[in-house]
Amino acid sequence: MIGYIVRRVLAIIPVLLVVGIVVFMLIHLTPGDPAQVILGDAATPARVKVLRHQLGLDQPLWKQFLTWVEHVCRGNLGTSLFYQQSVVHTVAVRVGPTASLAGLAFVFSLVIAIPSALLAVWKRGSLLDPIFMSGSLLGVSMPNFWLALMMISLFGVKLGWLPVSGYVPLDQGVGLWFSHLLMPAFVLAIQQAGLIARMLRDGMLDVLHQDYIRTARAKGAGERLVLLHHAFRNALIPTVTVIGTSLAGLLGGAVVTEVVFAIPGVGNLIVQSIASRDFPVLTGAVMFVALVYVLVNLLIDLLYSVLDPRVQYR
Amino acid sequence: MPRLRRRLSRTIMVLLAVGSMGLLAACGSASTGTAQNSAAGPPVKGGTLKIALNADPATLDWTSTSAVVTRAVSWNIFEQLFALDKNYVERPMLAQSAKVSPDKLTYTIKLRTGVKFQDGSDFDSADVVASLERWGKVSGTGVETFQHVKSVTAEGPDTVQIKLKSLFGPLLIDLADVRQAAIMLPSAIANAAGVNALEDKQIIGTGPYELESRTPGSSIVLKRFDQYKSLTENWGGLAGAKAAYFDKLDYQIVTDPQVRINGVQTGEYQFAVNVPQDNYDQVKTMPTVQPFIVDPYAFLAFVFNKQSGPFNNVLLRQAAQYASNPSEIGAAAVGNKALYSLDGSIFFPQQAALHTLTGTSLYNDQNIAKAKQLVTQGGYDGKPIRLLTTKDYPEFYNATVALSSELEAVGFKVDIQVYDWPTLLQRRDIASDYDIFVTTSSPSFDPTSMLWMIPGGWSGFYTSPKMDSLLAQWVKTSDPAVKTDLLGQMNETVYTEVPEIKSATLSALYVASKNLQGYPNWMDTTFWNAWMTKN
Prior knowledge:
The complex is a heterodimer. By secondary structure, chain A is mainly α. Chain A contains 13 helices and no strands. Chain A has two domains: 2-87, no CATH class; 92-307, Orthogonal Bundle (MetI-like fold). By secondary structure, chain B is α+β, with helices and mostly antiparallel strands. Chain B contains 15 helices and 19 strands. In chain B, the strands form four sheets. In chain B, strands 1, 8, 9, 10, 11, 12, 13, 14, 15, 16 and 17 form an eleven-stranded mixed β-sheet that branches. A four-stranded antiparallel β-sheet of chain B has the order 4-5-7-6, with helices on one face. In chain B, helix 9 runs antiparallel to helix 11 (368-377) and helix 14 (465-476) runs antiparallel to helix 15. The longest helix of chain B has 18 residues, at 480-497. Chain B is globular and about 70 Å long. At the A-B interface, helix 2, helix 3, helix 5, helix 7 and helix 12 of A face helix 1, helix 7 and helix 13 of B.
């Protein structure tokens, strides 16, 4: 088991390097000059040329690439062209808001998804089942930005219950932190909850046709015990994959939601760094997202063995 | 993307109105009434003004970038020797006076005394010398100005002398220019920064507010500089008396325009910049919000590639000018008549000392027959005109579509190429990549700093012996009558050589809480002399 984990962790290094190389190449092939963006519309070509030289952007691409690889190998992801701060610092300060939002959205999505899936399976065949199916389909297919703007209109502007945008760190008060994150977290949770609930419901319905369920019922087990103890746990394995992917997506930065609610997270940073052609930050932020995906996938794989003892890693 | 969101917002408003969804049932109908500022009363000191900015400045160094978002924050922190008043005329700010020698080659500038920097050090002539030398290397205007400067020397602690190599009349107005401004820094910081942009810890000025904190991508907080030494004259603009009534100015980065409006509506912010112009009618009906129309803001312009392609030929540029209708383009760009206007002068009407309509008869002179004739006469080969535009600024795209149909009406074929703004900025400097690009020009304060008009000075590859000659005469004269005549000739040259099609003048739309008082609404945002009433 430990050997497996070590091998998987070591495998992260080439994955990140490949991701970094691909992103580096793609964004450097994209037109747009960071020096021009930094200096503004009224900058003279001469001044742009000077700044390009200062930033090293006038070097041949292969030279810029080798410099970048050399720095990355030393654990240095470079300096933001826009903010003149280290990329690691620039990305790191955005992780807090994103993690807060992702964590809350994740909790909301599970709180919504698990009870509603259990209810749908328990009341299968009744009117609740098609209501659940439609509701979860709506959750999955509703565009984030649309729901966000609807909620801002209702709860922020009309009712004035919640702030329409912004982020307050946890150390400035739990109430403020929560009130600023409630709407964006709910917006994100609705979509994830729809997906998770459908997976869980389908998984449980499959399990309910298995022989061991019939056996449990024959032995006199009640519906509650059958659903919660036997069906739920066995349906979790495929669901955990979806849950993990959704968590990785949330931690990687919910781009649209962060932009609409003006949350200074990783997703927002990615958008800003594309707009300002801040190549080092964009590369660093995407590598961070890749790291999150890889780690969450590792965690999911390890969870399989916890949920199903037949799964063993060597 | 912003356009998509705005369209979406309109959709939401329609949905709200018809009450087609249960979710919206509680929303009720929109409030009515016109936003009017109530009687101000005496200024109230205290409180934090929260401002929703549309973008995050790369730097707060007002010398190193011409980005509007930088200066909108930084001119609370920094000051210049001379500053523009509300009529766009230079006034002494950190300077006390300027004496010009009879040969007009030596400027002796007396400095104000007792002025302190926000790090506690005294402002003196050594700071001026170091700051101006840095400005002469870093700023586009500074580099241009320093071509005429022989030396900048300290003549005692409160006097500076600038000696010129040759006559250069615009010296003082250039020192007051707001684009890549000649800000005054402590000499140690100016020398340490050199040509690099100032770091946040080097953001030390003499202005009424100082930098408290900056969180990239999130917020910039300024606090009142208690040792600020204000003038008493009421000149307006960036000059004269500045009273910092707010304890803090808290700039929040909010990129979504609809969220900026919502934030002011709900009281989360008290001010929001750059609200889409087509929200004007909606904003006017909000009971807690007052709209501010920023005029002058900028004029729309379609800049020709004059180095290669069809518009290397002046006849085809004239044809395009005759084809265009600034009124139609203004309407397409921003919709509401209150937010665009027509004026042919290269300077804005508010710039009384520079504005003249002499030589502008070809402005707003759409003549389809003449345009068609010039298309033929100019030997247009039928190859599609590559018209660069962007949807990052919806008014740019809307204006481009309007111009495109006007060009097609006189026989041009047009290929509209849409890029994001950074790509457009890059492509417009590559002659082989385009024929026309769209942009806006914000106010300049002297013909010599009007980049688009200076041969070789900017994108578009303009060369003009005539404009060169006019600008050379301009810098050597101080006679008002000669200057007015030269301005008329410059107008005429712009409309005959057509380096660009000067189109409609656009206003920007800012919104604020109705409790904001004393806001001057001059150029971009200035918040000294403004305060909030409680309710």
